[in-house]
Fold this sequence. Notes:
Keywords: Carbohydrate metabolism, Hydrolase, Metal-binding. Residues 45-362 form the Amidohydrolase-related domain. Its cofactor is a divalent metal cation. Substrate binds at residues 132, 210-211, 218, 242, 290-292. By secondary structure, this protein is of the alpha/beta class. The chain has 2 domains: 3-45 and 335-363, Urease, subunit C, domain 1 (Roll); 47-326, TIM Barrel, CATH 3.20.20. The chain has 10 helices and 20 strands. The radius of gyration is 20 Å and the shape is globular. The model has no long low-confidence stretch (mean pLDDT 95).
Amino acid sequence: MPILENVNSYQNNVLTENLDIEIENGIISSIKPSVSSKQDSKNLIVPGFIDLQIYGAGGKLFSAEPSLASLAIIEDDLLQKGTTGFLICLATNTEQVFNECIKTVKAHLPSAKNCLGLHLEGPFLNPKRLGAHVPEFVRKATLDEIKALLDFGDGAIKMMTIAPEIQDDDVIQYLLDHNVVVSLGHSNATFDEATAAYNKGIQTTTHLFNAMSPIHHREPGIPTAVFNHDKAMASIIVDNQHVSFEVVRFSQKLLKERLFLITDAVTECATGPYQHRKVGDKYVMPDGTLSGSSLTMLKSVKNCIEHCDIDALDAIKMATEYPAKLIGADKSLGQIAVGMEANLLVLDEKLNLTDVMFKGNTISN
């Protein structure tokens, strides 16, 4: 039985020192005061990170190389960086690419490590708020198309970003009825339209402030609708490129447990419709349009703490507990508690990653 001896972790929202965490069959079986005579640890044990929107890692952009081999490389790279659960994201693309990506994830999930399924960001978006998405593939959904898509996905599609102002209510309701997390994004919805969408059951918002109607003092837009709602969540990219650190700061103060981190990370790619080129700390398309980030989840957490005046516990929850809750995995993922999967990260005093444990096994670099 593996035991993490004499470690520190957050328990009941309080930093608790000198604990022994026992693990049995990949599950945390007990957490109790340490009886070890070892020197007190200065390391912090936190849950493994959960990223609900990432396009690739390890040099592999999934949509450009939708193979089992590339997905395995993405999984291993993310595990070594502390992401123990993720949704691989697919941007607006051709039907052929969508089908190939869905087919690959379906085949992979029975033996998957940290891949939890697919997040489809498009193609049912508003052409007025495309960001880096390819306009010729964007369209309004039909109910028959959604039914066929979910049938083909066979449970692999866990999340979908749509622009609700251009979709029929029966499309949105069908997604919700079939346990797909629906996210409002790439949308030009008014405040009233966005509020109505959240009231109908849309749970969250894709990369807050990016590719959406903005806040204006006479046209409050989507961000204000999120802030004013009592349930709607939102993801945010904390790289100071997509969103200013100061805007992240006030957004977290307003949203609290309703705001969570994503990387929206991509990799260099010179083929297909999404040719990402790294410029400094960001990625751009050939025409200079800002595309995905170069973040890791750990860097996102550090940015929250160091640049956005967000408490360390809150920043960690934004990368663990809150996204797990959104996708309904909070009974097994995202926390350090008895009965949870032993997906654990060891961070040093400066919050640098020193070790990763996945389902009770230490991951070697």
